[in-house]
């Protein structure tokens, strides 16, 4: 996996975070910076099934936008979308997002139920082009 100094900005901040408080603050701030998905796009077609909190992903010409009312999940989405949107479709399909989340320290802060939802988000990122 890529060293943290080669990560995009949000992932880099998370990888360097020291302790739960700093990590959580960084994740919440990342979620606030996420461009909100227009409400008209939050429908059954953009909904990601399998998530404990509602999550919507919309792919517009290879650029993903997403939203969740959960602050934690919105932060995780910001990290995933930052990376996914930096990749061309073929790279995105083959990219190991789970290993990426581990390198960013995110995996140890996700409960099993959140982790299952994030796997559904990753599957959508890798299959929706």
| Spatial strand arrangement across the major sheet | 1-2
Uncertain segments: none
Would you list the SSEs in sequence order as H and E?
HHEEHHHH
**Termini separation (Å)?**
24 Å
Proportion of residues in extended strands: 5-15%
Task: Note the overall shape.
Answer: globular
**Major β-sheet annotation:** 2 strands, antiparallel
What is the share of helical residues? 40-55%
Radius of gyration (Å): 14 Å
Structural class: mainly alpha
Q: Quote the average pLDDT.
A: 87
Number of strands: 2
Tell me the number of helical segments per DSSP (H or I, 4 or more residues long).
6
Report on this model:
- With 129 residues, the protein is mainly alpha-helical.
- Helices cover 51% and strands 8% of the residues.
- The chain has 6 helices and 2 strands, in the order ααββαααα.
- The chain has a two-stranded antiparallel ribbon with strand order 1-2.
- A hairpin with a 2-residue loop joins β1 (56-60) and β2.
- The two termini are 24 Å apart.
Summarize the structure.
The chain is mainly alpha-helical and 129 residues long. Helices cover 51% and strands 8% of the residues.
Topology:
Blueprint (H helix, E strand, L loop, with lengths): L8 H8 L2 H15 L22 E5 L2 E5 L3 H14 L4 H6 L2 H7 L8 H16 L2
Antiparallel strand pairs: 1-2
């Amino acid at each position: 996996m890529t060293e943290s100094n080669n990560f995009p900005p949000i992932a880099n901040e998370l990888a360097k975070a020291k302790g739960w408080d700093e990590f959580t603050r960084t994740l919440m701030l990342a979620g606030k910076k996420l461009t909100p998905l227009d409400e008209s796009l939050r429908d059954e077609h953009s909904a990601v099934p399998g998530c404990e909190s509602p999550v919507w992903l919309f792919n517009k010409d290879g650029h993903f936008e997403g939203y969740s009312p959960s602050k934690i999940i919105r932060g995780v989405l910001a990290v995933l979308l930052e990376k996914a949107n930096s990749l061309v479709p073929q790279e995105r399909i083959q990219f190991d997002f789970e290993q990426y989340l581990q390198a960013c320290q995110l995996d140890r802060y996700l409960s099993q139920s959140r982790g299952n939802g994030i796997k559904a988000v990753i599957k959508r990122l890798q299959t929706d082009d």
